Amino acid sequence: MACSFRYHKLGTGFNPNTLDKQKERQKGLPKQVFEADEMPDSSSYQDDQDDLKRRSMSIDDTPRGSWACSIFDLKNSLPDALLPHLLDRAPNEEIDRHNEDQRKANRHRELFALHPALDEEEPVERHCVPEVPKEHFGQRLLVKCLSLKFEIEIEPIFASLALYDVKEKKKISENFFFDLNSEQTKAMLRPHIQTAAISTLARSAIFSITYPSQDVFLVIKLEKVLQQGDIGECAEPYMVFKESDAAKNKEKLEKLRGQSEQFCQRLGRYRMPFAWTAIHLMNIVNSAGSLERDTELEMSLSERKGSWSERRNSSIMGRRSLERTTSGDESCSLTGFRPATLTITNFFKQEGDRLSDEDLYKFLADMRRPSSVLRRLRPITAQLKLDISPAPENPHYCLTPDLLQVKPYPDSRVRPTREILEFPARDVYVPNTIYRNLLYVNPQSLNFANRQGSARNITVKVQFMNGEDPSNAMPVIFGKSSCADFYKEAYTAVVYHNRSPDFHDEIKIKLPASLSDHHHILFTFYHVSCQQKQNTPLETPVGYTWIPMLQNGRLRTGHFCLPVSLEKPPQSYSVLSPDVPLPGMKWVDNHRGVFNVEVVAVSTIHTQDQYLDKFFALVHALDEHMFPVRIGDMRIMENNLETELKSSIAALNSSQLEPIVRFLHLLLDKLVLLVVRPPVIAGQIVNLGQACFEVMASIVNRLHKYLDTNQDMHGRNSLLSSYIHYVFRLPSTDPNSPSPGPGGLGGSVHYATMARSAVRPASLNLNRSRSLSNSNPDISGTPTSPDDEVRSIIGSKAMERCGNRMSSHTESASFLQTLTGRLPTKKLFHEELALQWVVSSGSVREGALQQAWFFFELMVKSIIHHLYFTDRLESPRKNRFPERFMDDITALVSTIAGDIVSRFQKDLELVERLNMSLAFFLNDLLSVMDRGFVFSLIRAYWKQVSTKLYALQNPTLESLRLDFLRIVCSHEHYVTLNLPCSLLTPPASPSPSVSSATSQSSGFSTHVQDQKIANMFELSVPFREQHYLAGLVLSELSVILDPDNEGMFGLHKKVVSVVHNLLSSHDSDPRYADPEVKARVAMLYLPLISIVMEALPQLHDFTESHNQWGRPGGPQGAAVGTSGEETEGEGNSMISQTVAMAIAGTSTASPMSRPSSFLLNSQASRQHGSFSAESSRSLLICLLWVLKNADELVLQKWFTDLSVSQLNRLLDLLYLCVSCFEYKGKKAFERMNSLTFKKSKDMKAKLEEAILGSIGARQEMVRRSRGQLERSPSGSAFGSQENLRWRKDMTHWRQNSEKMDKSHRSVRTRAELEHEALIDGNLATEANLIILDTLEIIVQTASVTESKESILGGVLKVLLHSMACNQSALYLQHCFATQRALVSKFPELLFEEETEQCADLCLRLLRSCSSSISTIRSHASASLYLLMRQNFEIGNNFARVKMQVTMSLSSLVGTSQNFNEEFLRRSLKTILTYAEEDLELRETTFPDQVQDLVFNLHMILSDTVKMKEHQEDPEMLIDLMYRIAKGYQTSPDLRLTWLQNMAGKHSERNNHAEAAQCLVHSAALVAEYLSMLEDRKYLPVGCVTFQNISSNVLEESAVSDDVVSPDEEGICSGKYFTEIGLVGLLEQAAASFSMAGMYEAVNEVYKVLIPIHEANRDAKKLATIHGKLQEAFGKIVHQSTGWERMFGTYFRVGFYGTKFGDLDEQEFVYKEPAITKLAEISHRLEGFYGERFGEDQVEVIKDSNPVDKCKLDPNKAFIQITYVEPYFDTYEMKDRITYFDKNYNLRRFVYCTPFTLDGRAHGDLHEQFKRKTILTTSHAFPYIKTRINIIHKEEIISTPIEVAIEDMQKKTQELAFATHQDPADAKMLQMVLQGSVGTTVNQGPLEVAQVFLSEIPSDPKLYRHHNKLRLCFKDFTKRCEDALRKNKSLIGPDQKEYQRELERNYHRLKEALQPLINRKIPQLYKPVLQVNSHRDSFSRMSLRKLDI
Questions:
Q1: Cis before residue 408, ω within 30 degrees of 0?
Q2: What is the pLDDT of residue 1965?
Q3: Residue 771 has pLDDT above 70, yes or no
Q4: Nearest to 493 by CA among 447, 460, 521
Q5: Could you count the other beta carbons within 10 Å of the beta carbon of residue 328?
Q6: What is the enclosing helix (H) or strand (E) of 237?
Q7: Bridge-partner residues for 1762, per DSSP?
Q8: Which residue in 1588, 1635, 1585 sits closest to 1785, CA to CA?
């Protein structure tokens, strides 16, 4: 046997890539090291940065020129390890070989183990193994009875438990009897009790509830020994006495105990009802779920409160718990609640007249009402403790209802747990799998009212008799508690003194297996005398009646109302019913029915269904040849047997579904038997094939229709599939052989009773061999050929069974004999089945189609059995089956294919199932029939579907065909089946035997036999013929991926997953583990490469979404602030992406922007992303698998044949693969995790599917079932469409649902994340290595082709792209090795052709040189060094590399946010070391040049590092960028880049004016160089032209001696140094000015632009420009006041303190956004520096006085901030007229500081001085930065009187403004007036006048001021008057009083001022009078007066 278990089931149907299996395959993966993961967390990184900031704040630690210290740093740093033999010159071939060996070592074998399985609903080819048929249980509940205590303990009390469903009014379980009496109490009954059997001592029971609901109650009934007196009397002591009073009532209790002992002695055999109570089960379950484990629940009915409550720990539950009702079955699950301990404290006394079940239901219904009648009753107080919990999976010591032990049962002496039989509330559909034959007799009531004589204390004795003699009573009545297992009689409980009692007893009887006519139940009625009287017997018989068990051979059950006879029944009464009036008998009440009794059978022997009974009886009669047959009242003779048999078969349809299901296995077996062995009736063979086929079809459809909940995803009813899988066997056909199997009637019942776990074999005759068809889970291997497999299944199963069985009722020997005995069959079941199906028509055919799977699977199983039994498994397949059968199969397949094609639009649901069933059938046939024949069947199907598709492009049909194909291809020998027949080694062998002596790969042709290589790579006819199935799969793929095939794109995901699935299963298949074999398998898929190449334009573009740290954005700086792909908002603590090619950044179009050649130009219009990301990824992984496993030589030959454009397309494909499988990084996984990572369903695909309607009925059904559609009332026996619902929530979905849970579980564990990252890392590494391998093959191919440049360019592009992505150290090592080899083979590629690629390569290498992982660094430095060396050797000058490296470095440092200069420094040192050790070039200038370059790089590095330190400080950052840009003054390209970077930074912070300035500077720079290059009149002449826009722009003029001439190579080569570039810059500048609101500047910019456009006659552009100008001037007009545009607020900021480094004692003017308050900037700066130095270290100086450094604390940092205003001299004001003029080109600012001479800031009016400080900045605002150094300061001091004059002038202006404002504003006017004339105004005008005008100043210098102030006051009063007049005209009547008040105040003020205003200073005139004559003086005075 061993050899045949060599393979596991390897078809994709059985080899699902489940999570666990993936995990298994992923064991032992190496951890790939990724730099992305090595990076420190941003938080800790930040801290280091902050330390750095604190340490070095100075911009100018070292001026740019001072190399000394940086070189010192460099010289002292350590290099990384050097690569050995790097400098040796080895031949290229050798290098390649070495690289390849390195690459191929330790590779991961299975690519798919690294790729997560596709997220599919459930693969269509997966057949779930049906569950083993087993006994049915509902939800199981374990109830343990712990203790029962009453207030007094005087006698034994017996209890029983049972479940009742109030709504259904049904008792839903049998009784569980238990007693909790103490040993001493039990002893009172000693004479009556035999030794108790252990089974009756159980105190715990397991109840099963199939339909839990809110209406289930657990009812506890108590009985006690019969005693004199009615129940009330007997219960009285229990209610009266309290346990606490035991001592007090000692005598009474003794007396009671004595009485009890007497009754026990005498009446111990009889019982009386005593008390009862009930528990609402769902309350317990629900509340137990909500509180702590093992909570105590108390239930009491207290008299005082009169409230019924169920208390849990002092009534958390509150009073209403039992009243709580909920409708419906919500929250009725019993599986997961917490165990609860209940204490029941109240029992209700049984009312003697309310014993019936009817009464009980009323009580229970009443109990749920809040105002329960029961409340009013007086309770019996007691304590019953119960534990209720969900039953464990496999409880120990369990007894079935039949008292059989269930394993595990370690010890027979332990007190058992009883399983309590359920009487389900509604039908349960489960086939019988165990033997059970029980009868329950429930006496209900007796009416002896009309019987003469004494009969009051009545008990009924029940006996099960097998004859009429009293000794014939059988010991089959189950005992109750603490007694024997079985008794011969049972007594009902007595109701005292009641002539017509009700009973509530349940008597359980074990029926004998075969019953005769003499078996009957005998009831004897006794009167029991309770009082002991002289010569009165204990019991007196008062009546008899009986029930015969069989009636016409059928079991009698149901309700009976029997007459009762007064005397013993006569002889042979038992065959008659008591209803028959026997002569001479006396009956109670004239033979009327007076005794009601119910008999219920629970039996797996008696069908209790007339139709089934009849059918089985007839079949039995045929078996036994017993005629005539009695059935019911008929006697059937042999001659009419045939018609009866046929009609009984047809009548099976009429029987109830429940019995049909229960006896399903037997029924189907019998039908099969009748087909195979047609009965001989009266000498004629009667053919019943058709009748049986019809009734099978109908039964199968009934099951499907009504039991739609238990179906698997293929719509297979689980009852039927498990029948086929485990039960069905070909019956033995020798009529005389003893048939243990489904042959005889008795045969079907040998079900063993075994452990209940799911693996419990259902019985011996359930032979599980549904071999080879896709549902056999535990065939542990695929044997060498399908035929061995069949043999092994049948053989091994038989053996297994014997080993497995536990207690069987069958001899296994005969079973084996049937299996192996060769039996001549009259008819073969499969042939008959095929025949009947082919000839069927109408509704029968429809029925068979509906459930085609059933018949197909039966047929397959039958075929296999037949081959096995007839020893044909060895025979060649061609001779196995008769022609006739083959023809039937062909016809069947062809008509079914026809149905699929013709009906898929109408009955999609049916067709979907049919299609799958057919596919599974053909898959199975491939294992047993000739494969050529099966292929012809597949071809027939294919043809029909293709023809239809040709006529009608329908995605649904295509989708069906895909499912079909996928299922057929899931065959375990799929690969072998694909090999061309001619190659099969032993030609006779029916199936290519893979493991035959010819070694594993014998099935594969060892050489590609001179087939044209191209044929292998294209879906050519020869390819399809030789690899039939693979050909079909690939053609489907190419058809659906065809972009012209519009309708099909909803199927992309589906078809891709077919391929993915196949490859994934080959990948993990141990048969193909050997690389050579895998290469042969890969050959089947070579055409996949070209199919994917064709589909390239439709694939999801992974390169776009993908955002990468070292990867600058699109065309560099094209529009400032918009960058190609980098729109990543988060985490860029570094200079933003827009500043992309930062520091020395290339001004050339960034090498990073993806060259548009990514898409072949032919395909310029890319139909974008018609493919979802998920499908694209799957398709690409399939492609990589083929590339990985295919034979390299074959690939190479094919590549050689490809055209250049095809090769380029292949390269584009690889480029895409690189992005697709890029490592996401641990951080990404964590981020996804924190976002409650849900597996993104491919929404796009879903949407498309929905739109295209190709969603497929299967999913549709699944969806509908979730919505639970209502069943439609219509529908024939064959479920019409609506009645078919498919449900997916079956058990077989466990594994799948687990997968879903996984993805929905919001947060995954650390370990899972680690694991995911590990897998992703290995996948990324492996995928990239495969790409690298392929590139190497392409390079070898390309080196011999003529157009190698473009191909090598493409190769390089892919290489560079892969370096740009997140890669593991392992991959980069190999990648750099390949890159070095490439450069050394084709140096001209880089240095002559593509500048872009050289730049790109430099950037990538540098990026890796700064990696934190040393291996990456050492490889990258080696590559970089060799690159320089190569460049040098080609042209003895490596200017190109030098320039590119410099630029790359700047851009790198600028864009990478966590860049570590330390690592880069080491790499630079490594390069230096190589240069020093390179002996060959020692004599050349090369080492010096390298050293120069390295030093220069180091310089840039230090500079840029500083930028990084200041990334948080925008001003400092801009200053640094400014400085770096200044440093590049001589290198226009780089300066331009930096200006653009600054513009970008400004735009980000909304400093549009500054951004515009940067752009203007850029334009000026370009203009300078353009004017050198070409002299064009219309172009601006250098910067001078731009003077009007900004006076700062002259600094761009190129006049210094070190200016590079623009003709030199690589200088001014950027795209901006062109006319178009210039225009672009200017347009951007205009746009920025416009955003800043500086429309006047827009005009100036356009003045430069217009001439250029005019010269180019570009009317369109001019139109646009003038449009924009009109807009700009329009806005100027509208916003003339300037209030609408705020241009900025200015502050002087001074820094003091050594902490600031070089900012110490520096003063700047800061330009802040308009309307910034002093507090805001103060807060911002204080916060910012506080964070840097510590909050207690920073102080803001509150005044604006000059700072004296000596007085400050040297350990603190001080900031002084003052608000300043633009300052203009009077002459300037003439030019600065508009608001814009006053806010543009500002270089001077002013602020005022009040002071007094004694040092205080403020004093009285006469001592208040004011200082005005005027500041001049180095450049005019707005400039390219927002803070400018102050270069000059001057101060003006005003005396107190001058201060007063200014104040008064200001007040007067305010008044004038308010008065003349238009429109008038009363509020404003009143405010100003109030401030001027209000009496309360402190230091108001009056006080000023009194201080300065009351006396003539003593100092003549002040005369003029005095006079000026006097005149000011004159003007002031005049203005006040105007204002008052104006106000009067504005106010309403309500303000009249206010106006008067103001006027009064005004007059007061005027009077007070009058003398002061009129006093003139005579001295002003004195000197004049002396010199001149009077007349002169007079005339002068008059002039003066006039002046005044």
A1: yes
A2: 58
A3: no
A4: 460
A5: 8
A6: helix 231-240
A7: 1692
A8: 1588
Among residues 26, 410, 425, 406, the alpha carbon closest in space to that of 212 is found at 425
Q: What is the pLDDT of residue 1911?
A: 87
Q: Is the dihedral of CA 1707, 1709, 1710, 1716 positive or negative?
A: positive
Tell me how far apart the alpha carbons of residues 900 and 912 are, in angstroms, rounded to a whole number: 8
The pLDDT value given to residue 119: 60
C-alpha angle with apex 525: 519 to 526, nearest 5 degrees?
135
pLDDT at 1303 over 70: no
Cα 125 to Cα 1818: distance, rounded to the nearest angstrom: 80
pLDDT digits (tens, 9 = 90+) for 810-822: 333 333 333 333 3
Q: What is each CA distance from 325 to 310, 1066, 1400, in whole angstroms?
A: 14, 58, 75
Residue 24 pLDDT greater than 50, yes or no:
yes
1452-to-1140, 1456, 1542 alpha-carbon distances in Å = 8, 6, 16
Identity at 1664, one-letter amino acid code: T
Measured CA to CA, the distance from residue 1286 to residue 1294 in angstroms comes to: 17
In single-letter form, the type of residue at position 1986 comes to L
Host H or E run for residue 1520: helix 1514-1527
Half-sphere exposure of residue 1407, counting CA atoms within 13 Å on the CB side?
32
Query: What pTM value is reported for the model?
Result: 0.67
Rounded to whole angstroms, the Cα distance separating 1823 from 1709 reads 12
Run of H or E including 571: none
Q: Calculate the dihedral angle through the C-alpha atoms of 93, 99, 102, 103, rounding to the nearest 10 degrees.
A: -120
Highest mean pLDDT among 956-965, 1132-1141, 1530-1539: 956-965
Q: Please, are residues 1820 and 1561 in contact by the beta-carbon 8 Å criterion?
A: no
**Is a pLDDT exceeding 90 seen at residue 892?**
yes
Using CB atoms within 10 A of its CB, is residue 1301 exposed (0-12), middle (13-18) or buried (19+)?
exposed
| Cβ(1557)–Cβ(1130) below 8 Å | no
Q: CA quadruple 1631, 1633, 1637, 1639: dihedral positive or negative?
A: negative
CA-to-CA dists, residue 1873 to 1488, 1915, 1921, angstroms: 82, 15, 10
Q: What gap in Å lies between CA 728 and CA 976, rounded to an integer? A: 31
What's the pLDDT at 809? 34
Token code pair at residue 634:
């008929």
| DSSP notation for 955-1024 | HHHHHHHHHHHHHHTT-TTHHHHTS-GGG-SSTT-SS--TTSTT-GGGGS-SS--S--HHHHHTT-HHHH
Structure confidence by residue, pLDDT tens digits, 1413-1423: 888 888 888 88
* Closest of 1040, 1031, 1176, 1025 to residue 1097, by C-alpha: 1176
| Helical packing angle, 829-839 and 852-869, nearest 10° | 150
Pair 1380, 85: CB distance under 8 Å: no
Confidence of residue 22 (pLDDT cuts 50, 70, 90): low
Q: Measured between alpha carbons, how far is 792 from 868 in angstroms, rounded to an integer?
A: 10
User: Beta partners for 459?
Assistant: 526
Task: Retrieve residue 1093's tokens.
Answer: 């190449």
Which residue type does 1090 have? S
* Cα angle 1113-1117-1121, degrees, rounded to a multiple of 5: 85
Residue 543, CA distances (Å) to 447, 454, 460 in order? 12, 12, 9
Picking from 1183, 1125, 1129, 1175, the residue whose alpha carbon sits closest to that of residue 1154 is: 1125
Of these ranges, 273-282, 628-637, 1149-1158, the one predicted with the greatest mean pLDDT is 273-282
- How far apart are alpha carbons 511 and 1967 in whole angstroms? 153
As given in the structure block, the two tokens for residue 32 are 């790939």
Greater confidence (1528 vs 937) lies with: 937
